[in-house]
């Protein structure tokens, strides 16, 4: 993804500091000193009407007098001056500015700044920020108290104070940065822009985020999911508690706290969430070094038995597991260790261990196929020096025969012990901690990052509802809308669920207490009676539910009593009538909650967990973002406590977990296909070994014009089409889905070698699996991949990847052997261009081999223009302009 004008941040060749000063104690003075001390390979201009009295600087009194347009401008002037300064810089040719100035909270002033920037295509970081540091490029455009060393960690933070703390922490642990950006108010450049930037930066090994809030969550999710595929992304979310609370008609809404929703979103984006600042530090220290872990099994080598046990306890709180040593490993260790050694993992080399024992234990553990990583812990003793043991361990880790795919983490307990050994670990590029909790959390972060990469979730198709059932759902929604209601009755809610294949107990409606006895006539006793009132959605809380009514007369009397109670206790509530259902046997079954809540940031959020009347008290639920497939739904359910019971135990059979998964998918489909759904509760969803049954449901609708928007775009199934080529060949064209990996791999095996070279612009005979995965597990917000089938045969593939601002999209197309010259390319290309126009993409480009005469001729015929590539005459860029951007001449 190209980041418009932001790439200058990674290596600006000139900087101008507007508001620079030589007056001690001012921000302008601190920023200027930092910028000069960083030793940029280029000029640093100080812009101030008053002379600047510092050595080696380039002082100019105004922006107009700058000899060149600076590639990066830093603004530290009073807030009211910022819009005019931005306009001057833009006119000069600057395209990136860091606005440190605070006080731009006034909406008119902020908009004036943004308008001035937009007219010149100038990007703004800030305002109200600490600044930026790019150590590899010699850039310190901040008022931080110290500089930062170069390394592999990109830190993006909404808090300037956290940035300074992180710089101090990193200095003590010798962790380096590829970039540090304080976002401040984030008026223009946001997390998503910067994640895209550093995901493509070869110097960045990991990205760490400190998040207070996210504006455009769909954009954030898109960028984070793309970045997490190629490098670890870590996030610490501030604000665990929601002091303001949440008013919601549903149990789900009451349970879906903001912090929890962020955690669910991070999980879905492949981000490694951490809960504390020390957790962020630990994860950053490990993940900023390029050491992927092959699995989750950890071997612990220690000279302290108690420390080993504590480390194993800490490991249980992560996604890691304690490795089981093979008999061969135990046998190998026996002659090298005292007879009293643990003969298990943790490998206790005993308190009097010297360097040779540690080295032998590390060698043996690393050779064990059941070990994926090692944690080597040294407790200081008077017997052996920690530095000597570090030398011995690191000599083995650095040896050529040491398995490169098994990362090692050091933990030299005690700050002094670690400080003496740290230079050795730094030289070997092995992370070192001084306390075991951080060390184990660091390993846990490695495993979480690996799992997140592998489980970056597939996006299932929306539109899975059959046409007839879709009409039934829409009729219920339109009926409520026509009556001005935003709450459906339980009967209407169950109609929606039944249309999606969820088993329900369908109630019979009685308009008043006198009609209840007649309503009972269509079913067998005993009965359940419930009130119908749009104001009283939690019926049991107000005495609006009666169970085990033995006959119709009892049901009628219960209705009369309910009506009197509601009139007395809730005189403002409208009692529309009653619903009667047959009583369902609940013996041996579990009550679950499945629901949808409306989150103000991420839109619809799904929940599953323990249900019933005590749902808020139990607070056992897992959250996830729609759309879901079966794997995602199963993973959500597995994160609940009640999942352990559902799996069965002793003589209790397992419940119908597959049925719960299907219900979760149905609810996901409902919210994806019908954005009018704001909130939903199925509570309880009765689950037993013989199936699932929705006993009660409530649904809330959005107000007209405020339909829900998903944070993750589902497969745009509406772009599935049956087309015909010019010679009459019938094609079925649809968006790719992850399950197409095998069919796409087979397709490329039937594309001739020259066409493969034209597609990938390099000699290739077999397309790798990771390339296939990247083409099937796509983010539909920024990419589209259409597959064209003739019958069951995949005959053509066209992939379109758009830039984040929709200004440009790159197209690549391939056709199966034997299917060229049949009009397939033309028909598929037309479909792609229609999609691009609907997505408001400004232009479509394709980089072609200059030898690909057939493709170039086709593209010229379709209105593309050809442009030679000066840097590579063997390639030609073809471009078709679809629309003129707003504001362009």
Structural description of this entry:
The structure is a single chain. It contains 28 helices and 37 strands. It is of the alpha/beta class and 889 residues long. Among the domains are: 7-238, Rossmann fold (3-Layer(aba) Sandwich), CATH 3.40.50; 297-454, Rossmann fold (3-Layer(aba) Sandwich); 717-881, Aminopeptidase (3-Layer(aba) Sandwich). Strand 9 (150-157), helix 4 (160-173) and strand 10 form a beta-alpha-beta unit. Helix 12 (355-367) runs parallel beside helix 13 (386-398) and helix 16 runs antiparallel to helix 17 (490-499). The longest helix has 19 residues, at 436-454. The chain is globular and about 95 Å long.
Topology, element by element:
Blueprint: E1 15-18, H1 27-37, E2 44-47, E3 58-60, E4 72-75, H2 82-92, E5 96-99, H3 107-118, E6 123-125, E7 131-134, E8 139-142, E9 150-157, H4 160-173, E10 177-182, H5 191-199, E11 206-211, H6 217-228, E12 233-237, H7 251-255, H8 258-268, E13 272-274, H9 277-287, E14 297-302, H10 305-315, E15 321-322, H11 327-333, E16 347-348, H12 355-367, E17 373-378, H13 386-398, E18 408-412, H14 415-428, E19 432-433, H15 436-454, H16 467-482, H17 490-499, E20 508-510, H18 516-520, E21 527-532, E22 545-549, H19 552-569, E23 577-582, E24 590-599, E25 603-610, H20 615-618, E26 621-624, H21 630-638, H22 642-646, H23 657-673, E27 677-688, E28 691-694, E29 697-701, E30 721-724, E31 730-735, H24 741-749, H25 753-760, H26 769-776, E32 783-790, E33 793-802, E34 808-815, H27 824-838, E35 843-849, H28 853-861, E36 865-868, E37 875-881
Helix pairs in contact: 2-3, 5-6, 9-15, 10-15, 11-12, 12-13, 13-14, 16-17, 21-23
């Amino acid at each position: 993804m190209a980041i418009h004008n932001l790439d200058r941040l990674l290596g600006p060749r000139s900087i101008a500091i507007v508001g620079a000063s030589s007056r001690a104690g001012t921000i302008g003075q601190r920023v200027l000193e930092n910028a000069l001390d960083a030793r940029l390979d280029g000029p640093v201009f100080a812009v101030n009407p008053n002379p600047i009295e510092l050595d080696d600087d380039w002082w100019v009194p105004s922006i107009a007098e700058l000899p060149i347009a600076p590639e990066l401008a830093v603004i530290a002037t009073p807030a009211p001056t910022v819009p005019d300064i931005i306009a001057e810089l833009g006119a000069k040719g600057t395209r990136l500015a860091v606005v440190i100035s605070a006080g731009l909270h006034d909406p008119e002033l902020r908009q004036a700044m943004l308008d001035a920037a937009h007219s010149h295509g100038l990007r703004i970081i800030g305002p109200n920020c600490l600044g930026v540091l790019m150590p590899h490029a010699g850039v310190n455009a901040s008022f931080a108290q110290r500089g930062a060393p170069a390394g592999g960690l990109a830190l993006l933070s909404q808090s300037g104070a956290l940035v300074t703390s992180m710089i101090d922490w990193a200095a003590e642990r010798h962790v380096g940065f590829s970039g540090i950006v304080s976002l401040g108010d984030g008026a223009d450049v946001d997390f998503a822009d910067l994640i895209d930037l550093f995901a493509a930066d070869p110097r960045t090994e990991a990205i760490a985020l400190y998040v207070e809030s996210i504006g455009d969550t769909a954009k954030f999710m898109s960028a984070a999911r793309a970045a997490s595929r190629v490098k670890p992304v870590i996030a610490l979310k501030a604000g665990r508690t929601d002091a303001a609370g949440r008013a919601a008609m549903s149990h789900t809404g009451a349970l879906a706290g903001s912090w929890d929703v962020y955690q669910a979103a991070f999980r879905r984006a492949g981000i490694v969430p951490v809960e504390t600042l020390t957790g962020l530090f630990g994860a950053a220290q490990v993940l900023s070094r390029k050491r992927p872990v092959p699995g989750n099994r950890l071997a612990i080598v220690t000279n302290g038995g108690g420390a080993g046990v504590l480390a194993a306890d800490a490991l249980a709180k992560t996604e890691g597991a304690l490795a089981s040593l093979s008999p061969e490993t135990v046998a190998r260790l026996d002659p090298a260790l005292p007879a009293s050694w643990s003969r298990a993992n943790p490998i206790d080399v005993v308190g009097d261990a010297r360097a040779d024992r540690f080295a032998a234990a590390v060698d043996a553990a690393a050779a064990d196929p059941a070990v994926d990583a090692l944690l080597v812990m040294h407790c200081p003793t008077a017997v052996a020096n920690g530095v000597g043991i570090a030398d011995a361990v690191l000599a083995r880790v650095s040896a050529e025969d040491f398995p490169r795919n098994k990362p090692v983490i050091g933990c030299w307990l005690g700050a002094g012990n670690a400080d003496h050994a740290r230079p050795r670990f730094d030289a070997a590029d092995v992370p070192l901690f001084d306390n075991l909790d951080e060390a184990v959390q660091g390993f846990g972060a490695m495993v979480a990052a690996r799992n997140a990469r592998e489980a970056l979730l597939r996006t299932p198709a929306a539109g899975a509802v059959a046409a007839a059932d879709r009409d039934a759902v829409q009729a219920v929604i339109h009926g409520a809308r026509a009556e001005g209601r935003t709450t459906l009755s339980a009967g209407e809610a169950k109609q929606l669920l039944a249309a999606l294949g969820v088993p329900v107990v369908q109630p019979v409606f009685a308009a008043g207490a006198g009609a209840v006895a007649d309503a009972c006539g269509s079913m067998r006793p005993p009965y359940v009676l419930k009130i119908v009132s749009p104001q009283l959605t939690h019926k049991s809380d107000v005495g609006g539910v009666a169970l085990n009514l033995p006959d119709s007369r009892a049901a009628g009397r219960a209705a009369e009593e309910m009506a009197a109670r509601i009139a007395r206790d809730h005189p403002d509530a409208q009692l529309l009538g009653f619903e009667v259902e047959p009583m369902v046997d609940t013996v041996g079954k579990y009550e679950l909650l499945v629901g949808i809540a409306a989150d103000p940031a991420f839109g619809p959020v799904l929940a599953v967990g323990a249900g019933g009347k005590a749902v808020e008290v139990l607070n056992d639920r897992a959250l996830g973002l729609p759309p879901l497939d079966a794997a995602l739904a199963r993973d959500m359910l597995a994160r609940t406590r009640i999942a352990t019971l559902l799996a069965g135990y002793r003589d209790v059979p397992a419940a119908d977990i597959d049925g719960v998964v299907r219900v979760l998918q149905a609810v996901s489909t409902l919210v994806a296909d019908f954005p009018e759904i704001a909130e939903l509760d199925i509570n309880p969803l009765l689950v037993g070994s013989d199936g699932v049954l929705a006993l009660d449901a409530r649904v809330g609708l959005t107000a007209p014009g405020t339909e829900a928007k998903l944070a993750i775009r589902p497969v745009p199934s509406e772009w599935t089409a049956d087309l015909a080529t010019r010679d009459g060949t019938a094609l079925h064209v649809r968006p790719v889905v992850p399950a197409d990996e095998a069919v796409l791999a087979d397709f490329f095996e039937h594309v001739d070698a020259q066409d493969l070279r034209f597609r990938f612009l390099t000699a290739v005979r077999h397309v790798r699996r990771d390339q296939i995965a990247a083409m099937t597990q796509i983010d539909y917000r920024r990419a589209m991949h259409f597959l064209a089938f003739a019958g069951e045969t995949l005959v053509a593939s066209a992939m379109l990847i758009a830039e984040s601002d929709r200004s440009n999209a790159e197209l690549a197309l391939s056709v199966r052997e034997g299917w060229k010259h049949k009009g397939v390319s033309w028909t598929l290309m037309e479909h792609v261009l229609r999609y691009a126009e609907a997505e408001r993409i400004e232009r479509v480009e394709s980089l072609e081999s200059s030898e690909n005469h057939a493709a170039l001729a086709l593209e010229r015929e379709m209105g593309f223009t050809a442009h030679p590539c000066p840097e590579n005459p063997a390639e030609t860029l073809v471009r078709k302009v679809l629309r003129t951007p707003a504001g362009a001449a």
